[in-house]
Amino acid sequence: MGSGWLAVTITITLIAIDFVVRILALIFVPKNRRPQTALAWLLAIYFLPYVGIILFLILGRARLPRARRSKQQQINEYIHDTTEGADLVTRDLSSPAWLEPIVQLNRTLGSTPLVGGNSAQMWAENAVSLAQMTAAIRAAKTTVHAEFYILLLDPTTADFFEALAEAHDRGVVVRVLLDHLGNAQYPGYRRTVRRLNKMGVQWRRMLPFRPSRGQFQRPDIRNHRKLLVIDGEVAFTGSQNIIDPGYQRRRNKRRGLQWKDYMVRFEGPVVAGIDALFATDWFSETGDLLPRQTPSERHSGGDYDCQVVPSGPGVEGENNLRLFNSLVYAAQRKVILTSPYFVPDDSMLYAITTAAQSGLDVQLFVSEIGDQFLVFHGQRSYYETLLRAGVKIWLYAEPTILHAKHLTIDDEISVIGSSNMDMRSFSLDLEISIMVRGEKFLAELRAIEDANRARSRELTLEEWLRRPIRHRTLDNLARLTAAVQ
Fold it and tell me: What tens digit of pLDDT does each residue of 159-194 get?
């Protein structure tokens, strides 16, 4: 009798706890979250109550550690004050009327102004851009600031590391930032750490996740930026990590996968903004706020207007998402988007489909194959909606992963950087994008888009509707996981 009552009591208690948890989830989960994100979490908690609760407690808040958040005001002030050249911005009748509010939006959210007098050079081959960055390090006289999501020593990148060592040996101050978990997943990570320590350069892991040492935060919040600044005068940024184009994976080698990236070399006042972003990340990881580097009086002689757009959980308002949406809504004729991981939230999906339904030429470049199972199937779940709206989808031919991230609007504006067009880059990852106004730069990107189109095939709605039912099921299920943030 006693054991029977005990079993009944335990059962009633568990049912009551389950009921209370579900009610509390309805109250607290939707708070300050997108409806689709809240719904995805509620489904996880309702169908897998204990697993769902644990995952929500670990992954449910897109916030940086408290110590880092407390530094954010200092960071914003540093970025705001460490930018020059706004007086060089070209303001003439050819500037579109819709650009000024977007510039102000970026300034308000990201603290950086639109600056003029810049030059830019772009490379569309990984080996070439890596060689150019290595050569720039070898020409450094005072400082080298390298910050990459992935920065690993392997046969492809060995000369880059050697250039860093040589710079340090001749008295150049070399500072290196690399993402902890972004690198720790690769077999070359320990080798890289040993090499950096042996060099004697200053280096840190970004957002280290080492609970045993008191370094703990949501593990999937990562610093995804890629940038290199030489002497405060020259900066590189784009989509390329410092790693072999096959990403050191045996399975990638078996499939013949190669990543294709774009990097841009900037000179002019915009370099100060890029370097300020490095300085703020260095401050976040070390507590050391670097002295502001004053650019030389000489400007690049370029005529591009540029604006640095930092984004991430430390920047209020998801300003990369707001920038992309504002530009798409402002477009009058053409919108071309390129992203290896395309998982938009509702606002971006509406912006893109509205542009296409309004008669604009809207094109999306993605890879024919994927390297991340859930993300790849999640992005496929949006294809039907895009195709029905009139968006042209170009699938870049396998076995290449088109890893570039850029956007062109009409014949006016280009955006290039590290930010994917997915909910992770909008909410969880720290990113850098550069908005560029300049006809020549846009023409170069359009030439790259044309070359990519020649290597791609157009996906049609008829083809897409014929895909197997198992693929549709996978796509729809993966879409739910994309919203759990």
Answer: 999 999 999 999 999 999 999 999 999 989 999 999
**From CA 348, how far away is CA 465, in angstroms rounded?**
23
φ and ψ at residue 155, rounded to 5 degrees: -55, -30
Are 415 and 327 contacting, i.e. CB atoms less than 8 angstroms apart? yes
The H helix count followed by the E strand count for the chain is 20, 19
331 and 306 share a domain? Answer: no
Q: Assess contact for 421 and 257: CB atoms under 8 A.
A: no
Q: Are residues 323 and 220 in the same domain?
A: no
Q: Which domain holds residue 70?
A: 66-311
Identity at 68, one-letter amino acid code: R
Cα 352 to Cα 392: distance, rounded to the nearest angstrom: 11
- Cα 146 to Cα 340: distance, rounded to the nearest angstrom: 23
Q: What is the DSSP string of 262-294?
A: -EEEEESTHHHHHHHHHHHHHHHHHS--PPPPP
pTM for this entry? 0.88
Q: Is 267:301 a contact under the CB 8 Å cutoff?
A: no
* Residues 100 and 173 reside in one and the same domain: yes
Task: Examine the domain organization and report whether 241 and 351 are in the same domain.
Answer: no
Cα–Cα distance for residue pair 423/321, rounded to 1 Å: 9
Euclidean distance between CA atoms 274 and 79, whole angstroms: 9
